[in-house]
Design a protein that fits this description.
The chain is an all-alpha fold and 475 residues long. The protein folds into three domains: 3-92 and 382-474; 96-186 and 350-377; 207-340. It is 77% helix and 0% strand. It has 13 helices and no strands. The chain has helices spanning 3-12, 22-37, 58-90, 97-119, 128-151, 158-226, 232-250, 257-287, 309-340, 344-377, 384-406, 415-438, 448-474. α2 runs parallel beside α13 (448-474) and α3 runs antiparallel to α11 (384-406). The longest helix is centred in the middle third of the chain and has 69 residues, at 158-226. It starts with a helix and ends with a helix.
């Protein structure tokens, strides 16, 4: 087989099929080439000085030397590109899956602080409803971050979307809390104004009536200490004072529902006491014996005919008991009203305490979201755009390298070496191009295909180096 036939043979062979037989074929090519340039069989035998190796033509030696020189330059450039690529890819820790998992774990753990702060909100009667809204929202958002941490996979955005859904729900809960707090504040402020006005009016009116009535009873008790009888003037004065008290009771503002019965019983007792004083006054007037024309009586009245004062005493005592009972009932009604409803003043104070705690929670919540948003914005420090630009640059560099390899001499005995090197360069060129077209942040073993093709390419380059060395040794 001639050298030209071998060259045509190698061009027809697929690159991978050459790997196991390349060294043998290279030797055969060299031997055939040597046979073509050897002297004819009729030529004299070689002298002892020429034994052991046949000298190649000067042109072949020069071609091999040129090839070796250019190959060394290409190899140096090849190794430099690899070295730069390795250094660059080693700095892409932020783009690897481990970095993503570590970051997601950090977010899940950090948000627990927000949830605990929500659980620590005041649980006062005013704020418990508001605290519950925030606690539920925080717990559900934390659960979404935990699911993201536990089940994240590259190129799967559904868990990130679930986090955003829960963040939106939490934002709505926070807004609802703020709206409800405003409503409560207005309600307490309106209630405080209305309650204060109504309570103050009733309390002042009732206190005045109770004070006048107690004074009447005190005056009556003082009179009874001095006499066992009630003359007409005294009875009339008490009746007149009692009538004013009855009118004042009728003019009282509407009491609370719990005090209505007590006030009604008090009015009944006042009417009975007034009637007793009026009856005593009428009886005392009759006992003076006044004539119908107003002239002096003809005889001194009989003391035995005086009005029975025990009736007045009984009415007064019943009224005193009714007044004391009413005072107690009204006080208890006020306490019961306080127990059944939130006191506006207390509600405003509790609401202010809650707002202080809520503002502190919101600051922590927003700070967490700011950190998460920043991390998501640059994909955890993995700059996708910068990586793609760099991959473009390396792809261009490797493509240029492959062109330079294909520009190496490929004639004669250099064809097998040329084939090995172009195949090696093509493998790396395709691997880098594929990485550039398919790379995604946090993809598991994104660079594995490149490194695998490097191993294959290194094998081809080593075979090419051996073949070149053999050529140099033969010529």
């Amino acid at each position: 087989m001639t050298g030209t036939s071998i060259a045509r043979f190698f061009r027809r062979l697929p690159a991978l099929a050459l790997l196991p037989v390349l060294p043998l074929v290279a030797a055969a090519a060299i031997a055939c080439t040597a046979a073509e340039v050897a002297p004819p069989e009729s030529a004299p035998a070689a002298t002892p000085a020429m034994s052991g190796q046949t000298a190649a033509p000067a042109s072949s030696q020069a071609e091999i030397a040129d090839f070796v020189s250019r190959q060394e330059a290409v190899s140096a450039q090849w190794d430099e590109i690899r070295h730069d690529f390795d250094q660059w890819s080693a700095g892409l820790d932020a783009c690897r899956p481990g970095a993503m998992r570590q970051a997601l774990n950090g977010f899940a753990v950090s948000f627990n602080d927000v949830t605990e702060q929500a659980r620590g909100l005041s649980r006062s009667e005013t704020a418990s409803e508001l605290a519950d809204l925030l606690i539920v929202a925080a717990e559900e958002e934390e659960a979404a971050f935990r699911r993201l941490r536990d089940h994240w996979q590259p190129s799967n955005v559904s868990l990130f979307e679930e986090v955003e859904v829960q963040r939106s729900a939490a934002a709505r809960a926070r807004q609802a809390t703020e709206d409800r707090a405003i409503e409560l504040q207005k309600s307490f402020e309106d209630g405080l104004a209305a309650t204060d006005a109504a309570d103050d009016e009733f309390a002042e009116s009732f206190a005045s009536v109770a004070e006048d009535w107690a004074q009447l009873h005190e005056d009556y008790a003082g009179l009874r200490e001095d006499t066992d009888a009630l003359d007409g003037d005294s009875a009339s004065q008490f009746a007149e004072a009692m009538a004013a008290i009855v009118d004042a009771l009728d003019a009282l503002p509407d009491p609370s529902e719990d005090a209505e019965d007590a006030i009604e019983a008090l009015r009944t007792a006042a009417q009975e006491e007034l009637a007793a004083f009026q009856a005593a006054a009428e009886a005392a007037s009759s006992e003076t014996g006044l004539a119908s024309d107003g002239e002096a009586p003809a005889a001194t009245p009989d003391p035995a005919a005086k009005f029975d004062i025990d009736i007045v005493d009984a009415a007064v005592n019943e009224a005193k008991e009714a007044l004391e009972s009413a005072i107690d009932t009204i006080g208890e009604a006020d306490e019961a009203e306080d127990d059944g409803e939130i006191d506006p003043e207390q509600g405003l104070a509790e609401l202010q305490d809650f707002r202080t705690e809520y503002n502190r929670l919101v600051r922590a919540w927003d700070a967490f979201h700011d950190g998460y948003n920043e991390w998501r914005g640059d994909e955890g420090g993995c700059d996708r755009v910068a990586v793609m630009q760099t991959l473009d640059e390396y792809s261009l560099s490797v493509s240029q390298l492959a062109r330079e390899v294909r520009a190496l001499p490929s004639t004669g005995s250099l064809l097998p070496v040329y084939t090995l090197l172009t195949d090696a360069a093509a493998r790396e060129e395709n691997a880098i191009r594929s990485l550039r077209n398919t790379w995604q942040p946090f993809t598991l073993d994104a660079f594995r295909a490149v490194h695998q093709e490097r191993i294959n390419s290194d094998g081809l380059r080593r075979q090419a180096d051996i073949a070149v060395q053999e050529l140099q040794n033969r010529f």
